[in-house]
Structure formats: C-alpha cells, structure tokens
Amino acid sequence: MSKALLLKNGRVIDPANHRDGVGEVLIVDGRIAGAGLKVPQDAEIIDCTGLVVTPGLVDLHVHLREPGQSAKETIASGARAAAAGGFTTVVCMPNTTPSLDSASSVAWLLEKARAEACVRVHATGALSKGISGEEMAPIGALKKAGVVALTDDGRCIQNHELMRRALEYAKMFGLTVMDHCQDYSLVGKGVMHEGYWSTVLGLPGWPAAGEELIVQRNALLAELTGTPVHCQHLSAAGSVRALREARKRGVPLSGEVCPHHIALSDESVKGYDTNFKMNPPLRSEEHIEALLEGIADGTITILASDHAPHCGFEKEVEFDQAPFGILGLETELGLFLDILIHKRKVIDLNRLIEMYTINPARLLGLDCGTLSPGALGDVTLINPGLEWRVDRDASFSLSRNTPFHGWELKGRAVRTIVGGSTVWKL
Amino acid sequence: MSSSDPPSLVVKAEPARWIHKDLTGLQSLTKEELTLLLDTAAAFKSVGTRHIKKVPALRGKTLVNFFVEPSTRTRISFELAAERLSADVINMSATASSLTKGETLKDTALNLQALHADMIVLRHSSAGAAQFLAERLDASVVNAGDGSHEHPTQALLDAFTIREHKGRIEGLHVAIVGDILFSRVARSDIFALTRLGAKVTLVGPSTLVPTELERLGVSISHDLDALLPELDVINLLRIQHERQRKEYFPSLGEYTSLFGLTKARAARLREDCLVMHPGPINRGVEIDSDVADSSRSVILQQVTNGLAVRMAVLYLCNAARSGEWL
Q: A184, A200, A270, A313: which to substitute to probe chain B, counting the most B Cβ within 10 Å?
C-alpha cells in the first residue's frame, strides 16, 4: 500500500460534493480520507498552490486496441497515454480482434489491464455478436465477466427491432448502452462531412442527417424501453436538438462531445491529410456552434476523446481508404480547457470537471469521479493556465495520428494520482 | 513583348512564370498560369501536324503512365504526348501493379522513384491521390483524374478548344450539363472557366447538381430548355452508368427527355454555339447521335487538342522541376 499523500493549498473542485475552494485532500491507504482524519507523520506532502485538485478524470470512450491490434496501441501504452492526459479511469471499446463479445475475451482484457495498466481500465462488451448488428451478444455473460456498458462502437445496429430488444435485455442487468449513431443507408461510403468542402474536394459526403436520424431513433427506443442510451461522439446540430428535447421530457438519453468536433471544421480536410479523417466526420461551423450551445446549456453532459490510434502506414494512404480516427487521450483536456474555458468561455471549470468525473461515473455506475471520504484515491492535478505545445513525438501512445501536432494550448494536467500513487507527472 | 524582341521559337509566353513541378488540379491556379498553359499548348499544337511529330523537350526523361483506374483515351493521349516530347514511356495499370498484392500507393510510387522515373501521370479512383503522390515524390506528378475531384488536362483542353473557336473565354456563357456531383471534369471545368472569366451554368437533375457549388461563382439550373438560346458553349457530361446508383434519377429515358441534347434542343441553340463532350459519348442518352456528328460539335477536336494540352503540361512541369527550358 502506498504512503499517505496530502495535497495542500490547491483549489479543490469536486462537483459531486459541490465543493470548490482552496483546501486539502488526504489520501490514506489508497482512499480519500475524511476531513477529521489525522495526517500520518510520514505522509508525502504536495504543495498544489496554483493548481486545481479534482477527482481523477474519466474518459469513457477510448480504443486500447488489444486484443489483436497491438501495433496500434496496447493496454499498457494506452494507459500511460491516459495518465499523461490526466485520466485515472478509461473505458475501452469492444471493437478489437476478436471483439469483446464473449466472457473470455472480456476476462482476458481485464486480467491484462490489472497486470499492465497504470490507470483503471474498464471494459465494455459488444451489443451484438461480433459487432455485426445481426444477433444479440451474450449480454448476461458479459455482465458477469465485468463489463460496465454495452456498445457496438465503430458500428451501429441498423435493425431497430434488434436494438429495441437488446436495450430491453440490457435493462435487466442495469447496463447502459452506448451507441455510435450512424445510419448506413444515408452515410453510404461517406468519408467527410457532406457540404461545400466534400463537394469541392470530390470526396463522398457523410451527411449530418446520418447521425441525427439515429439519435432520434435512440430517443424513441430509450423512451420505449427505459434503458439509458448514451450517444457517442455527437457531431451534428440536429443531434443536439434531439437530445435536448428528449432530456427535457425525462427520456434516459445522454450525449458526449469529443474535442476534435469543436476544435476543427470540415475545411481542415482540404489538404487530404488523413489525420483529419474520423467518424463521425469534422463538420461545418453551424454544427460546431450547436455543439458548443449544447455543452453550455447542459444538453451535453459528458466529454470524451474517442482515442483511436492507428499505425502511420495505415493512415498514410489515399484519403477515402484510410481508417477513421485520431489520438485523443493526451490532448483532450488541453483542447477543452483551451476552447471551452479560455477562448470561447462556454462553461466554467466546475462544469468541465463535472463532465469528466461524476457524470461519466454515474452514467456507467463506476466507483470513481468523486473526492467523497472513502472514495478511490484517484486525483488529477490541473494547471488550467499552463501554456504548452502538443508534440506528437512525445506521446506515450504507440501511434502518432493526431491533427493537433504543434498546437499551442492553455491548460493541462500536471500530475495523475491513482490509488494514492503518482502514476505520471509533468 | 515589345516589337524589338525576337519571336520565340516554341513558346510565346515566358516559361519561367510556371513554377509548379506537379499539376494536381486547377483550383489553385491563377488566370495567368492558366493562360500560360493554353498559350504553351497552342505552340505545341503545330507539332502534331508536322512531318516529324517530335520535339526533344523530354529527351532522356522517363514518364510512367500509372493508371490505377481504367482509362483508354486519357492514357493514350498522355502516352502520345510524352512520345512527341521524346520521353521514354512506361504504362502501368492497376492489375499489372503490386497494388493488387496489397502494396500501398506510397510504396508503389517510391519504387517508381527508385527507378528514377521523372514524371508520373496518375489516374486513380480516390480523390486527392495525385496530391498525395506529389507531396511525397521528387518526380513531377500530373493528375489524369482523381476520383470525383479533378481532371485538369480535360478542363484545359476544353478551355483550349473554346478559345480556339471563340477567340476568348471571358464573357462567354458555358453550360455544363449532366452528372456534376460525381464528375471530376465538371470541377476542373468550373475552376478553369470561372477563373478565365466565363459565365458558367451547371445543369442537371437536382440530385446530381450540388447547390454548394454556387459558392464557386456558378449558377445552377434545372431547366435546360430555358437556357439554350443564351449559350455560347454547351458541354455535355457522360451519364456514367458505372458510378451511378438508381437513387439519383429514375431512368436514362427520363434523363434524356429532361437534359439530353436532342435534335429539337440543338435546333434552339445559337448557330455558333459549340457542342462539347469529354467522351466517351453515349449516343442517344446525353446527346443525340446526329448532333454529336454535326458541324458545331467539336468533340473530336477536343481529342486532338488534348494532345497539345498534355504536351504543354508535361513540358512545363518537367521544366519547373528540372530547370530545363526549351
């Protein structure tokens, strides 16, 4: 067990407990200590003057690529990237090789994560067998193996009846379903946002309606079944409107936004650089504004990265043939602080931390995201005003596919503490 | 040029104004650069009618015609253009290349570079493929069509043919009719003709004419009949069955009835209106067979001019790369 740790003089922000003020956080035996507890004599003391002390951040949407794609990323390397981004907990997606659609593959992953990952790694299970959208995955067995949610991320179940029954079935186990919202017939072979730039570049368009339609579908099915549905990586204005309307009526629907969808627009694709290719695609300004509005008014409750490593040789191909996705773990907090707090002043720091801690923890029922006494001793120290430059070559990821190389950002994590032990510091 | 300058032997405009080792598209070219390309093509056109159809501009240079997507006329035109410039030409198709064995485009291209190819002419089904190669190779890369993006030499030969007949491009009203959405010819035509001062109207079914293109300074119409008497040039695009899906329009018959250049429609064109088509034509679909063969059709002259335009492009790109000007 690690030594006791006392974090002094920092601005403690713990949205779960409505706490925001300069104070102390004590971690003893890997857990947050109550206010009355005496500080052990041998406790390590960290002066956090000028820093924000928050519950360890949670990213509920990452691809760690194991099993089967370990040239792109491993659990160990992805976890190190998470720590360097300020994350103490990540939730990994099941579109691996083979996919996480069986108890044995989930058990293998969790075992490997316990042995090799420096942060907490939770697994999701596939919603359909082989993520093929045809038959229900063994949801009961997946739950027993320890998955915290179900998703076919990367793909989307098109058969509404199967989706409806999978939601109903998942409800029995209290599992949230996370959905990559994409209507295949509308999207077709689309590789970038359908609009002016796709037309000029001659690239197949991915219309916003291809996402909005499935968000609407999910609103209807979440209402019908009562199962919480979380819409992943929202990119389109109509998705935000649908989510807002559904939530107003109490439908258990939620949504997340990834930093690239507010930091970059479809114009970025004009050089055919595949580091600007992701799914859903970068969209035009009116969609970016709608996402920011959704974050500001509380429609969007969760921030995440969709960390999607790919090897250089896989990405360095013709644009329409490249795989979708970019790195995210080490840049997401910096981008959101820079854009949401400093540049656009969309929300305050409390809201941002809430969206990265207690909100994802509550959605999936994770025992993290709070500094309540007895909680896991996971803490992130953030310097919200620190100016830094993104350097892809310094990344802990095995991959280098980021469009943000060289960007100057304001704000980042400076130390990541898991169970009272520092797993990374700047 | 002042009157005391000696007349230039081959190219009237100063070649030093051309600075690009590659031609991947026309969108970023200036009016002056486009004009230089057309002037250079005019100088090269006479080579094709000489007794000895060769000039030494690319002697000792190796050109690879790399066609990842099937094409006959464009490949032959580039091959002939390169040979008339005295280059050594290798033809490579997708089926004969290692791309079918899973080699990436980048690796195939690096292998060509390792063989000291000086120029690569690329036809590829992916938009941006020519730019992808151009950024990675020292060799000159000329785009012979990349997906639905650009087909710059086709648009240059269109502009060349229009200028040859009309003496100018500025102020002319050009209609481009057909499948604009999937057409690389349409995009390159739009970029070149608007930059050279033409008024361009895109005509076709609403499913195949994206309204976003209005931002490029063109008009959009779905009423060909109303436009006919105003046009100086009508450019009919091939309705491409191989790329078309049934969702875009109900039938070829309905397409012809709305947008085909039938005899009746041709009769309503001005006497001096040029009828153009990038080929291969579908007789009876986008153009009536007799209209295609009529005196105002310049379809075969386009093919002839394609040679001159491609000679000019190869010459200028090679010279910009190597510094070897005629």
A: A200
